TrEMBL record:
GO BP terms in the entry: D-serine biosynthetic process
Broadest EC class assigned to this enzyme: lyase
The name this protein goes by in its record: L-serine ammonia-lyase
EC code: 4.3.1.17
Domain Tryptophan synthase beta chain-like PALP residues, every copy: 18-299
Top-level taxon: Eukaryota
Lineage summary: Eukaryota, Metazoa, Spiralia, Lophotrochozoa, Mollusca
Family stated for the protein in its record: Belongs to the serine/threonine dehydratase family.
Pfam families linked: PALP
Length: 314
């Protein structure tokens, strides 16, 4: 299906969800622009309902999640008046677990690996008769998250590129579908934590990750899934640039610190990854025609008592 055909579903999703979600602001920062030598436009999904972009997909239930998707699904389920169970790894921060429970959802903890998470989810779904809502590999989730691009390009229609962090790939798939339908020349770049190894798979068009699926070691718990989804992978191969921005923990911390210190924005590590990519030498050395970039700040759900740089010197 072409991006033009599919974008209609994203416009429809936008009409459905806009009474319930924020049209998040797009901010700029002169200090940041001077630092990177380009104009950056930050789409602030950290200010979204439930603290992340996940609210857009959850509205459009059993969910499994590192936190943000579960939080958004719990919120959406409360709006709809239906029961919700959320399966999370045992390592998920208590900050997010408490927030999910605050929306009335049941929280079930599982071992720290994708197979255990899925098995726990399927057990509950079978027992209770629930539907499993995948955190990213689901058409309605992709279409809901694609509404980010509609709003961003409405405000800044002449963007040259957009930086998007990816775990399962739902957000970047939706953004790529919408953005490419609006402007076929815009470039969509994936941002990943070290260990994801997406670029080799994107360049080959084949899923080269080891099986069974595993989580990667990163401070960005929202980006810990190594593999892109079965539904999202072909979309990303078709619409997203093959050159991937890979950032380490220290890079992510630098991005977060800049946001806290100079932009006065509370962001989580998954959003810090895109800030880090925008600050990277790699971006500076790219096509000089890339002058205006969108930077997706995907979430702000972080325990401020456990900030990752407390053990570093800043």
């Amino acid at each position: 299906m072409s991006s033009r055909e599919t974008v209609d579903f994203i416009y429809e999703a936008h009409e459905r969800i806009k009474p319930f979600v924020h049209k998040t602001p797009v901010y700029t920062n002169t200090t940041f622009n001077n630092l990177i030598g380009k104009e950056a436009f930050f789409k602030c999904e950290n200010l979204q309902k439930t603290g992340s972009f996940k609210a857009r997909g959850a509205l459009n239930t059993v969910a499994y999640s590192s936190g943000n998707h579960g939080l958004a699904t719990a919120w959406a389920s409360r709006l709809a008046g239906v029961k919700c169970s959320v399966v999370v790894p045992k390592t998920t921060s208590e900050f997010k677990v408490t927030a999910v429970q605050g929306y009335g959802a049941e929280v079930v903890k599982c071992e720290y690996d994708p197979i255990s998470r899925l098995e726990a989810c399927e057990t509950i779904a079978t027992k209770e008769g629930y539907e499993i809502i995948h955190t990213s590999d689901h058409d309605d989730v992709i279409h809901g998250q694609g509404t980010i691009a509609l709003e961003l390009l409405q405000e800044v229609p002449d963007l040259d590129a957009i930086l998007v962090s990816a775990s399962g790939g739902g957000m970047i798939s939706g953004i790529a579908i919408a953005a490419k339908a609006i402007n076929k020349n815009i470039k969509i770049f994936m941002v990943e934590p070290k260990g994801k190894m997406a670029e080799e798979s994107l360049r080959s068009g084949k899923r080269l990750w080891p099986n069974p699926p595993q989580f990667i070691d990163t401070i960005a718990e929202g980006l810990m899934s190594q593999q892109l989804g079965n539904l999202t992978f072909p979309i990303i191969c078709r619409l997203v640039e093959k050159e991937v921005f890979t950032v380490g923990n220290e890079d992510i911390i630098n991005g977060m610190v800049f946001s806290f210190r100079y932009m006065k924005m509370v962001i989580e590590a998954a959003a810090g990854a895109t800030v880090a990519a925008a600050m990277s030498e790699k971006l500076k050395q790219m096509d000089p025609g890339i002058k205006k970039i969108g930077v997706i700040l995907c979430g702000g759900n972080i325990d401020i008592l456990k900030l990752p740089w407390y053990s570093s010197t800043y």
